[in-house]
Amino acid sequence: MIIWNPWHGCHKLSEGCEHCYMYFLDRKRGVDTSKVFRTENFDMPLRRSRNGKYKIQSGMQLFVGLSTDFFVEEADAWRNEAWNIIRQRPDVVFRLLTKRANRIADCLPPDWGDGYENVLLQVTTENQKRADERLSILLDVPAKHKGFMAAPLIGPVNALPYLASGQLEEVLCGGENYDGARPCHYEWVK
């Protein structure tokens, strides 16, 4: 798994954020996670090795923004540059994950159309309330590839009505694993 964090930092948004792993890890490093800043890895997908080839090879997948939210408000000034990088690398799959489904449509680039072939839009759905809220928004957004992550799974999620749409091609699931981790019951995963 390769991670691209063009910016770092986020604001807790919902009950799934209560024990956010980034807040835990940043606290250990003395970093204030609530301050969003552009990282020195902003242009990582465009970096080349000495032989001139991209360091991120063709066909690879990048998990985007695991130390942030791709659609966090403070990144609005940088997002168009990030979209430009994504456009320049149609040979790489960019997996964008967000809890801010309500911001996706307003933050898409002007040439988005029905989506970029190399972008998988995903929302997180930590419980049924957030699944109903975020998946219904995601299904209304034009995109060639969509999925969701039931994580941190802190309650059961019935995604069958959303899966029936045929638009969701991937579902990931996971629990919490740092300070204050709440249980993730196997029945919920099934």
What's the β-strand tally? 8
Percentage of β-strand residues: 15-25%
Radius of gyration: 17 Å
Oligomer: single chain
Order of helices and strands: EEHEEHEHEHEHEH
The main sheet comes to: 6 strands, parallel
Strand order of the largest sheet: 1-4-5-6-7-8
Low-confidence stretches: none
Secondary-structure content class:
alpha/beta
Our measurement of the CA-to-CA distance between the termini, rounded to an integer number of angstroms, reads: 24 Å
State the share of residues found in helices, binned by percent.
25-40%
Give the mean pLDDT. 94
- What would you call the shape? globular
Number of separate helices: 6
Would you give an account of this structure?
- The chain has 190 residues and is α/β, with parallel strands linked by helices.
- The chain has helices spanning 21-29, 76-88, 101-107, 128-140, 160-163, 186-189, and strands spanning 2-4, 7-8, 37-38, 61-64, 93-98, 119-124, 145-150, 168-173.
- The chain has six helices and eight strands; from the N terminus they run E-E-H-E-E-H-E-H-E-H-E-H-E-H.
- The model has no long low-confidence stretch (mean pLDDT 94).
